[in-house]
Amino acid sequence: MRPTRPRHALALAAFALCASFAPLGAAGKDAPLLRGVLLDGAGTLFSLADATGSATWVKLGQSYDGWKLESFDAERQILVITRDGARHELGLEVARIGASNTPATTADADALLEKMRFEDMVAKSIESQQQAMAKAMNQMAGANVSDAEKARMVEIQAKATKIMLEEMDLPGMRQDMAKVMAEVFTAEELRAQSAFYSTPAGQATLEKQPVLQSRIAELMMPRMMKAMPKIQAMVLESTNAAPASADH
Asked: How far out from the chain centre does Cα 178 lie?
């Protein structure tokens, strides 16, 4: 019996060694990816993605696909997750996006445009710009224009916006945009943007972007209109100078 004991002990030791490594190996295969980290008023949010690239924002203490978020080392950018006794450390994948060249597809880009509510965003942006333009023209007209004429200008602006939206063919434009974005961005970059627009900050960006564009237009229009007399004078001077230079 004595000769067999060392063999039994060796076999048990080997089994114990393999068992100790098994959870780590399993964890590495099906653990989620850490796409991003966001600080907001509710605390720290972590963008975790599965193998398909679909990402969800989760807080410490919550779970994702059975994995519980235990702790986060901000200095090392490491998130510790556990499941069924297995412990795994996730490094920040978004930090390596720049080095990835995975080609994007139009489906990847269209998924982002869907998240951004593309048609609604474009429509609101055009309407905001038209309103800002009408406001600037109304201010420049001042008391020289009657209320009836101002109302007519507003009506014309509304009709112009409607015609522009119809002619732009937003569904077709969305398809063209998806093709361009798939050529410009990698798949990982599109997924990172999609993950951002899934956050409260991303949603606020989408909601407030038309307002921001309108405010910018309000700032730009008076400055552009102020430059018009100089531009007109320059064009007139160039036009008058053209025959003279031709005679020489």
From this structure: 14
Whose tokens are 């048990």? That residue is: 12
Read off the pLDDT of each residue in 36-59 and give the average, rounded to a whole number.
78
Average of pLDDT values for 194-203?
Answer: 81
Same domain for 230 and 112: yes
The CA distance from 134 to 140, in Å, is 10
- 75 vs 48 pLDDT, higher one: 48
Share of the chain above pLDDT 70, in %: 77
Q: Please check whether residues 146 and 77 belong to one and the same domain.
A: no
Flag whether 154 is in a domain. yes
Give the helix/strand (H/E) hosting 90: strand 86-91
- Please state the separation of Cα 99 from the chain's center in Å: 19
Residue corresponding to tokens 């361009």: 180
Domain that holds residue 213: 106-239
In a domain, 31, yes or no: yes
Within 8 A by CB and 6+ apart from 131, the residues are 157, 214
Contact 186, 100 (CB under 8 A): yes
Determine, yes or no, domain membership for 87: yes
